[in-house]
Design brief:
By secondary structure, the chain is of the alpha/beta class. The protein has 3 domains: 2-130, Probable tRNA modification gtpase trme, domain 1 (Gyrase A, domain 2, 2-Layer Sandwich), CATH 3.30.1360; 143-215 and 397-446, Four Helix Bundle (Hemerythrin (Met), subunit A) (Up-down Bundle), CATH 1.20.120; 230-383, P-loop containing nucleotide triphosphate hydrolases (Rossmann fold), CATH 3.40.50.300. It has helices at residues 2-5, 38-45, 98-109, 119-126, 132-143, 147-157, 160-184, 195-213, 216-224, 238-246, 289-304, 315-325, 347-356, 373-383, 401-423, 428-446, 451-459; strands at 16-19, 28-34, 56-62, 68-77, 88-94, 113-114, 226-232, 264-268, 275-279, 307-312, 332-337, 361-364. Strands 3-4-5-2-1-6 form a 6-stranded mixed sheet. Strands 8-9-7-10-11-12 form a 6-stranded mixed sheet, with helices on both faces. Strand 8 and strand 9 (275-279) form a beta hairpin. The longest helix has 25 residues, at 160-184. The chain binds guanosine-5'-triphosphate and magnesium ion. Guanosine-5'-triphosphate binds at residues 234-240, 253-255, 257-260, 282, 338-339, 341-342, 366-368.
Length: 466
C-alpha cells in the first residue's frame, strides 16, 4: 500500500498473496498466490504438490516452524496460463477467519507479500490477459446486484465493449490516414482524396460514437435501477401493492389512513433494468408533523422518479392524486386502480382514471389476489427510459462515467476536426490533431496508453484478492 500512496507502481517482481473470498463464516475460503516465486513458496509450505498444471491435490500446509496450519486443496497454474499470466497457486482452505489468515501468514513468512486491492487483476492487465474495460467488468460482476448488471458485466468481460471501442478507434485512424495521404501525395495518379469521402467517413464515425454514447442512459439504469414511486391518497393500498410487487411483507399495512410515514425503498430484479420501488406516505395535507414530513419526502421522490404509479381505489381519489402530482413531476405516470377484487373496474373507469392523472397508461390491480401485477411490471419497464428505448443489454453498453467521458471526448474531437477541415481556415494537418486526440481518448479507455494512471483510477474500487 505504501507504494501506491507514494504514487509509484506496485512492484510486479513481488510474489503476492491474498484471501480471495469474503471474510465471515463459511465452509471454505480461497487463498491466491501469484508471481515468479509462487510455486517455490507454496512448495516449501506444502507436503504434496500437483505434478502438472491445472491439477489439484489435497495437501497439508505447515508454517515456518513446521506446525500444521490447515488441510487444503491446492491447484497449480503455470505461466502464462493463469488469471494473472504469472505462475500462480490457488489454495482452498477451511473457511472462517482463522484458517485463511494463518495460511496467508505462513505464505508471507516464506516470502510472499500481501496483495493490494485489485492487484491480481492489475497484473492480468499488465500481462495482456485482459484490457482495462474487461478488468472493470470483473469488479462490476462482483458488485452486480441485478441480473441486468450481471449480463452487462459478462458481455464486457467477453470483450464486447472493448471490440466496439477498437472499431471506433480504427475509424478515426483511417480518417487520419486519409488526411495524411492527401497531404503527402497530392500529385498521385488518382488525384487528391475526394472531400466527399472524408465527409462520409467523418459523419460515419460521429454517428457510431453517438450511438454508443446513447447507451449510457441504459448503463445508468442498469447500475442504479430506475426510480419507481408509488403515490396516492392515504389508505388506497400503496403499501399493499409495494409488498405484492416485492413478494414479501416489507411495508406495514393497516386500515388506518396515514400508516406509512416515511419512504421505504426496495429493488425488484425483473427482466429488463432493476426497479427501485419506493412506497411513500399518502399525499395529503397532513396536520401531524411526522406525517407532514413524510408527505414532503414523498414529494421529493415524485420529483426524481422515472415512473410514478398514481394509486387510487376510486375515480374521486384518482382526481386527488392528479391534483397533488400536477406540476411536481416529469415522470411517466401510470394510473393504477387498486383493490380491483372488491368491485369490477370498467374500461370507462380506467379511461377516466388515466385522464385524471394525465397518465400514459391505466391498469387495474389487486394486491390481495395478485391481479394485474405482472402486466404492471411490464408497463413500468416500457416507461422507465422516459420514452427512449432501453439499449439491448447484450450489445456494448457504457456503464461508467469514465466510459462516457472518453466517448464524449472522442465525439467532440471528431466534430472539431470536421468543422475546421470543412471551413478550411487552418491547414488540414492542424485540423487532424483533433483526430489524434480523439484516438488518444479511446486508447485511454481500453488502457492501451498510460496504463499505470488508468489502472490507479480503475482499481480504486477493487477488493483485495481480485
Ligand atoms: N380488498 C383489498 N384490500 C386491499 C387491497 N390493497 C390494500 N387493501 C386494504 O386497504 C387498506 C390500506 O392499505 P395500505 O396498503 O396500508 O394503504 P396505503 O395506501 O399504504 O395507506 P397509507 O400508508 O396510510 O398511505 C388495508 O386495510 C388493506 O388491507 C386489495 O388489493 N384488495
Ligand atoms: Mg402505506
Amino acid at each position: 500500500m505504501a507504494d501506491r500512496d507514494s504514487g509509484s507502481p506496485l512492484d510486479v517482481s513481488d510474489t503476492i498473496v491474498a484471501v480471495a473470498t469474503a471474510p465471515g463464516r463459511g465452509a471454505l475460503a480461497i487463498v491466491r498466490l501469484s508471481g515468479a516465486r509462487a510455486h517455490e513458496i507454496a512448495r516449501v509450505a506444502l507436503d504434496r504438490w500437483p505434478d502438472a498444471p491445472r491439477r489439484s491435490v489435497v495437501s497439508t500446509l505447515h508454517d515456518a516452524s513446521g506446525a500444521e496450519v490447515d488441510q487444503v486443496v491446492v491447484t497449480r497454474y503455470d505461466a502464462p496460463a493463469s488469471y494473472t499470466g504469472e505462475d500462480a497457486v490457488e489454495l482452498v482452505t477451511h473457511g472462517g477467519s482463522v484458517a485463511p489468515t494463518t495460511v496467508t501468514a505462513a505464505l508471507v513468512a516464506q516470502g510472499a507479500r500481501l496483495a493490494a486491492p485489485g492487484e491480481f487483476t492489475r497484473r492480468a492487465v499488465l500481462n495482456g490477459k485482459m484490457d482495462v474495460l474487461q478488468a472493470e467488468a470483473t469488479a462490476d460482476l462482483v458488485d452486480a446486484r441485478s441480473r441486468a448488471a450481471q449480463t452487462v458485466a459478462l458481455r464486457q468481460l467477453d470483450g464486447g465493449l472493448s471490440r466496439r471501442v477498437i472499431e471506433l478507434r480504427s475509424q478515426l485512424i483511417e480518417l487520419e490516414a486519409l488526411i495524411a495521404y492527401d497531404i503527402d501525395f497530392p500529385e498521385e495518379d488518382d488525384g487528391p482524396i475526394a472531400p466527399a469521402r472524408i465527409t462520409a467517413a467523418a459523419q460515419r464515425a460521429m454517428a457510431a460514437l453517438d450511438q454508443l454514447l446513447a447507451t449510457s442512459r441504459t448503463g445508468e439504469l442498469v447500475r442504479h435501477g430506475a426510480l419507481v414511486v408509488l403515490a396516492g391518497a392515504p389508505n388506497v393500498g400503496k403499501s399493499s401493492l409495494f409488498n405484492a410487487l416485492l413478494g414479501e411483507a416489507r411495508a406495514i399495512v393497516t386500515n388506518i389512513p396515514g400508516t406509512t410515514r416515511d419512504a421505504i425503498e426496495a429493488v425488484i430484479d425483473t427482466t429488463g433494468v432493476p426497479l427501485r420501488i419506493v412506497d411513500t406516505a399518502g399525499l395529503r395535507e397532513a396536520t401531524d408533523v411526522v406525517e407532514r414530513l413524510g408527505v414532503e419526502v414523498s414529494g421529493s421522490y415524485v420529483a426524481r422518479a422515472a415512473v410514478v404509479l398514481a394509486c387510487a381505489d376510486d375515480v374521486e381519489s384518482m382526481r386527488a392524486v392528479g391534483t397533488s402530482l400536477f406540476g411536481r413531476t416529469s415522470a411517466a405516470v401510470i394510473a393504477v386502480r387498486t383493490k380491483a377484487d372488491l368491485v369490477p373496474v370498467s374500461a370507462a373507469e380506467l379511461e377516466s382514471a388515466k385522464a385524471a392523472v394525465n397518465a400514459r397508461a391505466a391498469i387495474a390491480v389487486s394486491a390481495e389476489r395478485g391481479d394485474g401485477l405482472h402486466e404492471l411490471v411490464e408497463l413500468i419497464q416500457a416507461f422507465v427510459a422516459g420514452g427512449e428505448a432501453i439499449a439491448d443489454l447484450d450489445a456494448p453498453i457504457l456503464t461508467q462515467e469514465r466510459h462516457r467521458f472518453a466517448i464524449a471526448a472522442a465525439r467532440r474531437e471528431t466534430a472539431e476536426f470536421f468543422e475546421r477541415w470543412q471551413h478550411g481556415d487552418v491547414p488540414a494537418p492542424v485540423a487532424a490533431v483533433h483526430l489524434h486526440d480523439g484516438v488518444a481518448a479511446l486508447e485511454e479507455l481500453i488502457g492501451a496508453v498510460d496504463v499505470e494512471h488508468v489502472l490507479d483510477e480503475v482499481f480504486r474500487r477493487f477488493c483485495v484478492g481480485k
